[in-house]
Design brief:
This protein is mainly beta. It contains two helices and five strands, in the order E-E-H-H-E-E-E.
């Protein structure tokens, strides 16, 4: 994973966290809803402020389990070639993720529009670890 910080916004992007989103099996069984039923409607949406009344309640199922984080001064992270993290529920990983970006803008510069994010490198070749 590597950070992609929008040019000109380097002073404002403070840190980025990628969370895995998992609906507990008991809740899926009780409600009969799949992970896609919970999260697909949020794909391609603009997002909401973290931990605000507008934050959809299902986002509370997005946790920092096998997550990734970046902060100012880091170049990103790469796992050793023989290791990896599973992607997709069928492999024990997550199918949906939530990206949380925190900003440092004490002077309240406005308007500030940002499209920073991360680049995820993956392979279909199963790793040993």
């Amino acid at each position: 994973l590597e950070p992609i910080i929008q040019e000109g916004n380097e002073p404002y992007v403070h840190h980025i966290v990628l969370y895995e989103c998992h609906i507990p099996k008991q809740q899926v069984d009780t409600e009969g809803a799949t992970t896609a039923d919970w999260f697909q409607r949020h794909v391609d949406q603009p997002g909401q402020p973290c931990y605000s009344p507008n934050m959809p309640p299902e986002w509370s199922f997005c946790l920092a389990t096998n997550a990734w984080a970046w902060a100012v001064g880091s170049d990103g992270e790469r796992l050793p070639e023989h290791t990896g993290m599973p992607l997709g529920e069928e492999w024990g990983g997550a199918t949906y993720f939530m990206l949380e970006t925190h900003y440092d803008n004490p002077a309240m510069h406005y308007p500030l529009i940002d499209s920073s994010g991360i680049r995820i490198y993956y392979t279909e070749k199963l790793r040993d670890y």
